[in-house]
Design a protein that fits this description.
Blueprint lengths: L1 H14 L1 H29 L11 E9 L5 E5 L6 H8 L6 E7 L4 E4 L2 E4 L3 E4 L3 H4 L4 E3 L11 E5 H8 L8 E4 L3 E9 L12 E4 H8 L1 H5 L7 E6 L6 H16 L12 E7 L3 H4 L12 H30 L3 H9 L4 H38 L11 H25 L5 H5 L7 H37 L9 E5 L2 H5 L1 H9 L4 E7 L13 E5 L2 E5 L4 E5 L3 H5 L3 E4 L9 H4 E5 H7 L4 H4 L3 E4 L2 E9 L14 E5 L6 E6 L4 H15 L8 E2 H7 L2 H35 L1 H9 L4 H35 L10 H27 L3 H5 L3
Parallel strand pairs: 6-11, 8-10, 18-23, 20-22
Antiparallel strand pairs: 1-2, 1-12, 1-13, 3-6, 3-12, 4-5, 4-9, 7-10, 8-11, 9-10, 14-24, 14-25, 15-24, 16-17, 16-21, 19-22, 20-23, 21-22
Helix pairs in contact: 1-12, 2-10, 2-12, 2-24, 10-13, 10-15, 10-24, 12-13, 15-24, 15-26, 15-27, 24-27, 26-27
Length: 805
């Protein structure tokens, strides 16, 4: 019996080749999209789960609050004393502590091999007992217990020494100190929220900066700190203990208020960091669960469109088989057997679509990996859950699609069918209408969402940031360059292509993470400012180089020695938190920032130092050569190439053995929106697929409707109907359904994209133009698709039409 069902299915497949191709291809594309996204989501959810103690490791972060309770800064790092204090005060809860301290990108050398290493960390010696990073060489318990010892990843060992055999060999750091290799570890799995290539013993760092200095340092929040807890750990309860710990060791603020009112420690489960932690400082940039949800939803929507398309065409095509059903019932076929046959044929087509979808996945994976920056693969044996889910989905889609012919047609009376009597099909028609509306609701929604994303990206690219970011090159500096900066600046300015040069602690596009306690003169006396004011350490040329405008006062004056020790410049946002009513009022006022005392000499207009995801924060500028990290230079238009060659040559003289890696401020700003750009591309690609799949269904439905109304079209043409009139007649029902889909899509897109835009401090308003363009494009494409069969039917010979059946 099964072989008979299979023969009938194959015969129908070959008899209706066009219908079969449309049906299978549409569902296959939808399944392929879903498989690709399932692979991506599965990869995203797997981060850090390879650790044996993954469910018992937490990272500690630190946040600061304004007096109104709003969090002004939340760092993924904390001060160095907190870790040991937690272990000391709560030994039954905190079983172990591991701290990671990065020092930027030090120069690491061996012989003629010189590399700047960005994955370089000082780390506590118990790191290999907490985390499951296997050592290929060395003893996990002792590799990092001695000063000046280092563990390398296997790829790093090969990079410096040509092989994994690095034990006992020496690396030199910043051309100053030597580190002995005591271990080689396997490269970190890619599914890690950060990656390390070089791990140096923490005692080495203590010897450099002084252990006592670290134990008293509550302001250097540069230590990524992880704790190991026992099974059954109660995170909310322990968080309350952390509030007490902060108050116990840091004491109240100057006004007697508990310090925990303004700053507190927070816990993050290790497996949550990659998708849920996007704090103001992270070891590496994390992903975002919101984008995982969006990508998953988009893939599911495309699959739904494909499924709707499959069901729609299946139910429409089934109407052609009424006489077949009648004949089979006359010859004795039982209704149960007819149900099995129709369901079996539908599931068979669904499985063909799954196979084709798998082929599409294999062909598309290289492009998809390039797009998402991964190395995903469809390992069927290792993805049994995904394979099982797809099999269930395939059977489900096939069963639902075949349910109409299986249960409706099998119930028809054979006498009525064979006489040619009309059967009531309003339920089938209504069902197909609902599916078409659903398809175009999703298609128009994706198109409109794509347009909103692109509109926001265009806004952030073209918005006036309040300074000139074009053609500003910046490079990391060094203590030697800072000490001779006037001479270096003069040498750089000797190149005609360089119009100005400055040095600073941070450059625009970076995060503003540095701040100190502030006191300011308000009402004739100094008062504590309880809100955070971020600091940027600059030289006398910063404002001019970046084209920052002044609201009141003046710039730093190199001819006034006091400006280097006592002068401050504020931005407009800082005036409100201090309590000054105007920029003019601020000029000459006393201010104390950290350990520096002085007066305000200027107020600059607010400008966007950070991306438009963040609001403009209060900023204070001061001169402090000890904090300078980057040299910025503005390049004249049309002089880029020769200027880069000049700077490359000069910089290699200033920083021998260091790689020359120029960066441009405008490019760094653009890089901050790459995840948003990818979202727009995802919407665009999937919207295009959704429209194509929906139109494949419309193509099949239009053919079905034209066939069903063949005689009607013939009669209308005999009675004088024009071709255009018949095309309108056959198209208007579809147009009506698409308009309903458009109306349904509007509130859904508005709600969803409004939530996404809330992630920007500065955003566009959702315009009706996006909806109009998306709806108009979908309607035009759909009507062009439908008109293919409508025109064909309208041009047919009415004599042949009237002879139909």
């Amino acid at each position: 019996m099964f072989s008979n069902y299979l023969k009938i299915a194959v015969r129908n497949l070959l008899k209706y080749k066009g219908y079969s191709l449309l049906n299978i291809a549409g569902l296959a594309v939808g399944m392929a999209c879903c498989i690709l996204m399932l692979l991506y989501v599965q990869d995203e959810l797997s981060y850090d789960r390879y650790h044996e103690n993954a469910d018992r490791i937490y990272r500690v972060s630190r946040s600061w609050k304004n007096p109104n309770g709003e969090i002004s800064l939340h760092l993924g790092h904390i001060a160095p004393p907190f870790g040991p204090l937690m272990k000391n005060d709560f030994p039954e809860t905190v079983l172990d502590v591991v701290r990671f301290r990065s020092i930027g990108t030090p120069l690491v050398s061996h012989g003629e091999n010189h590399f700047q290493e960005g994955r370089f960390f000082f780390v506590d010696s118990t790191v290999f007992s907490m985390f499951s990073w296997p050592l290929l060489q060395g003893d996990p318990g002792s590799v990092l217990t001695e000063p000046n010892t280092v563990v390398l990843s296997e790829s790093t060992a090969r990079k410096y020494f040509g092989s994994d055999d690095a034990m006992g060999k020496t690396l030199r750091v910043n051309q100053q100190s030597d580190l002995k290799v005591t271990g080689v570890m396997r490269d970190f799995p890619r599914q890690s929220h950060f990656t390390a290539d070089i791990l140096v013993s923490y005692i080495t760092f203590e010897n450099i900066v002084g252990k006592q200095n670290l134990e008293r340092n509550w302001g250097s929040n540069n230590f990524a700190t992880y704790i190991l807890v026992p099974p059954g750990f109660d995170a909310p309860a322990f968080s309350k203990n952390l509030l007490d710990l902060v108050d116990t060791y840091m004491g109240p603020d100057p006004s007697g208020v508990p310090i925990s009112n303004g700053t507190q420690l927070n816990l993050w489960r290790l497996t949550d960091i990659h998708l849920h932690s996007n704090l103001d400082s992270e070891i590496e940039a994390n992903s975002d669960i919101a984008y995982v949800f969006i990508y998953t939803a988009v893939a599911v929507f495309v699959l739904l469109i494909a499924c709707f398309n499959f069901m729609n065409l299946s139910t429409a095509h089934a109407s052609r088989r009424k006489k077949e059903v009648g004949m089979r019932k006359v010859l004795g076929a039982h209704r149960t057997l007819l149900i099995q046959q129709f369901l079996g044929e539908s599931v068979f087509l669904s499985f063909l679509a799954l196979i084709l979808g798998g082929i599409i996945v294999e062909l598309a994976l290289p492009w998809f990996n390039s797009f998402v920056g991964r190395d995903l693969s469809m390992n069927y044996a290792g993805n049994l859950a995904v394979v099982f889910g797809l099999l269930v989905l395939t059977v489900l889609v096939g069963s639902v699609a075949g349910s109409y012919p299986a249960f409706f047609l099998s119930a028809l009376k054979p006498v009525s069918v064979l006489k040619g009597g009309k059967q009531r099909g309003s339920r089938g028609l209504t069902f197909r209408s609902v599916l078409v509306v659903s398809q175009f609701t999703i298609s128009i929604g994706l198109l409109a969402s794509m347009l909103v994303v692109f509109e926001q990206l265009e806004f952030v690219r073209t918005k006036n940031l309040g300074f000139n970011k074009d053609r500003v090159l910046y490079l990391p500096t060094s203590a030697e360059i800072v000490s001779r900066f006037p001479e270096v600046r003069a040498q750089l300015l000797s190149q005609p292509g360089i119009t100005d040069v400055t040095v600073s602690s941070r450059v625009p596009s970076g995060r503003l993470l540095d701040s100190q306690n502030t006191r300011a003169e308000v009402g004739g006396e100094l008062k504590n400012i309880n809100e955070r004011i971020a600091d940027i350490h600059v030289d006398h040329n910063f404002m001019r180089t970046y084209g920052v405008s002044f609201t009141a006062g003046r710039d730093f004056d190199i001819n006034l020695a006091s400006d280097s020790t006592e002068a401050f410049i504020l931005n407009e946002a800082s005036l409100a938190v201090i309590g000054w009513q105007s920029a003019e009022e601020a000029i000459g006022r006393r201010i104390e920032y950290g350990n520096r005392k002085g007066r305000v000499v200027g107020v600059v207009k607010d400008f966007h130092f950070e991306s438009l995801h963040q609001s403009i924060v209060p900023i204070i500028f001061l001169i402090n050569p000890g904090r300078f990290n980057a040299v910025s230079m503005r390049i004249a238009a049309g002089h880029l190439n020769e200027t880069l060659d000049f700077v490359r040559t000069r910089w290699r003289e200033l920083r021998p053995n260091y790689p020359f890696i120029p960066r441009f401020v405008d490019e760094q700003f653009d890089a901050q929106y790459r995840s948003d750009e990818r979202l727009g591309e995802i919407f665009g690609i999937f919207a295009g697929l959704a429209v194509v799949i929906a139109c494949l269904g419309l193509l099949g439905l239009a053919a079905f409707v034209s066939e069903q109304r063949t005689k009607e079209i013939g009669v209308r043409k005999v009675l004088g109907a024009t071709v255009s009139g018949i095309v309108v007649l056959l198209s208007k029902d579809f147009a009506r359904l698409i308009m309903v889909g458009f109306i349904v899509a509007i509130p859904l897109v508005f709600f969803g994209m409004d939530r996404w835009l809330d992630g920007f401090a500065y955003r566009v308003a959702i315009s009706w133009l996006a909806f109009a363009v998306a709806g108009g494009a979908a309607l035009l494409i759909a009507l062009l698709t439908v008109s293919f069969h409508a025109v064909k039917a309208a041009l047919s010979n009415p004599v042949e039409s009237l002879r139909y059946e």
